[in-house]
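cron nightly-structures :: item 1 of 1
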Amino acid sequence: MRTRLIPLVFGLALLSAACGDTTLLERDTGPASVEAVTESSLTTYRYCGSELDCADACMCSANQCVPDGFGPPNPDCGAPPRRECDTGADCRGSCICSAGFCAPDGFSPPSPYCHLPPPDAYEDNDTAAQFTAYPGSPLTGLNFHELGDVDWIAVYFGGAMTAKFETYNLNGADTFLEVYAYANGAPGALVASNNDICSVWYDWSCKASRVTLSVPANSAYYVRISNLNSSGHNVYNQDPPGYDFRIY
């Protein structure tokens, strides 16, 4: 289905009273993402990207935790990780919170992904065809719930303005932000991109991203946001890498 612009709905707030507003775009419920790493690679053994994902006396070999060969072996190196929980909201779909850990809900076939964090409220937005429409106010609580996850956001400007596209409030994420022109229902030319807003290595807020554009009236853009910090997916981290996004 071809994506098209539709009028402002729900009384969305102005980004700037003097400059213009943003309007929802109609979302195309296209096929699932082919960009993200598929969860079939995250089986019930302890998947790892580095030694940081493994327990003591274990190392990462071929994406699986195994004994490191030094001293007494750890018999739990290959045991699947478990996700702690307080309620079912802490767990993925097809999983429940049982005795403090996410577990299959008892329906066949059982989910092998209960140890992984749930996606944010805006998924599935892993492709441009499945974008999240920017509502005129900040999008909060976004996350990269699995390796390779990306987020696509679309925005329409009713009036001309100087717009800042920005990630902020990072939680273990190192965002990379790209802005594409809207062209016949799909991303067109890459207009601008940004990795880090500053270069102070010990200040994690510098890993946020910001693009400033002069946008004409009645224009639309796609925003693609990815995560450059793969270590943020350490299985010992209960929360996936996260961030907030705003246009102002």
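cron nightly-structures :: done
DSSP finds no helices and 15 strands in the chain.
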